[in-house]
Amino acid sequence: MTSSLSFFAAFQVHTYRRLNGHPFSTTMTTGNVKSIGSALFGLLFTKGSKKANRILFTDSLLIVIGFGLGAFTATLLRDSWHAQTILGAAFILLIVFMLTQYDLRRHPENY
Known about the structure:
By secondary structure, the chain is mainly alpha-helical. It has one domain. It is built from four helices and two strands. The chain has helices at 2-15, 30-45, 51-81, 85-106; strands spanning 18-19, 22-23. It starts with a helix and ends in a 5-residue tail after the last helix. The model has no long low-confidence stretch (mean pLDDT 84).
């Protein structure tokens, strides 16, 4: 099970590296929390363009909230689904991968 998780985590990290032009980590790391703090600081205390900081803050916050909701849902499902709970996450990643491939074929200039 651990090797499968490692494989899919590596696949996920390698495939999805940027979001709205900003680097980000799809696996939950402290880098996402740091991005929230940096963008919030930029929004509150810098005088330059705030659009990039707002986008980075929103995207990073959604990633962290999404991770939290996914972890909470998996915890609730663990009692009834047991080890098969991981299949729910794998299914969601498969859908995201398919949507990305569809988008890549329609808009290759974005990648």
